[in-house]
Amino acid sequence: MTAPPRLRSLPDRLRQIALFEVGGLVLITPPYIWLTGQPGGESLALMAALALLASLWNGVYNTAFDWIEGRLTGRPADLRPWLARTLHATGFELGILLMGLPLIVWWTGMSWRAALIADIGLAVAYVAYAFVFNLAYDKIFPITQPVGESR
User: Fold this and answer.
1) Given this model, what pLDDT does residue 1 score?
2) Is-contact 56 94, C-beta < 8 A?
3) Which of 10, 23, 59, 61 has the least CB density, counted as fewest CB within 10 Å?
4) Sign of CA dihedral 72, 73, 78, 83
5) Would you state the torsion angle of the CA atoms of residues 38, 44, 45, 46, taken in this order, to the nearest 10 degrees?
6) Residue 26 parent element (H or E)
7) How far, in Å, CA of 140 to CA of 127, rounded?
8) Is residue 2 pLDDT above 70, yes or no?
């Protein structure tokens, strides 16, 4: 039996989520506004709503992914190899793509097709961002506490 994987503490996970979502809003909202032609205020509000949805998904998805990966490999998330990081970021974005599409349609009045294209564009941008962000976060805030101990 493998030892339980080292997971991030709740305060660490909350910091990770907050930094990720704020960074995403700052980096991705301006290109979204420019590419979709949607009004700036409405776009920012939509991006904030999607960030809230993503924050909830982030906590659930990252904790589950870290736990499953740790059980299968015995390795903590901060030592994740490139392929696993790619799968991690892609899986996260596929989940949020499916959850965000109806919200984009409702909020913007876009057709399902136009909203899907916008949502795919957001997903591609966020996959790249998630990959780089999580790599940097793991380097800056490594998981150092022993199993079962909080920071």
Assistant:
1) 58
2) no
3) 10
4) negative
5) 60
6) helix 10-36
7) 20
8) no
Report how far apart, in Å, the C-alpha atoms of 106 and of each of 53, 96, 100 are.
15, 16, 10
Q: How far apart are CA 40 and CA 83, in angstroms?
A: 36
**CA dihedral angle for residue 124, residue 125, residue 127, residue 129, rounded to 10 degrees:** 170
CA distance linking residue 92 with residue 125, whole number of Å? 12
> 53, 45 in Cβ contact below 8 A?
no
Listed in order, strand segments (DSSP E) in 18-150 are none
pLDDT digits (tens, 9 = 90+) for 13-54: 889 989 998 999 999 999 989 988 888 898 999 999 998 998
- CA 50 – CA 39 distance, rounded (Å): 16
For residue 55, the number of C-alpha atoms closer than 13 Å in the C-beta half-sphere is 18
- Indicate yes or no: pTM above 0.90: no
Nearest-CA neighbor of 17 among 149, 137, 148?
A: 137
Joined tokens for residue 16: 């990770």
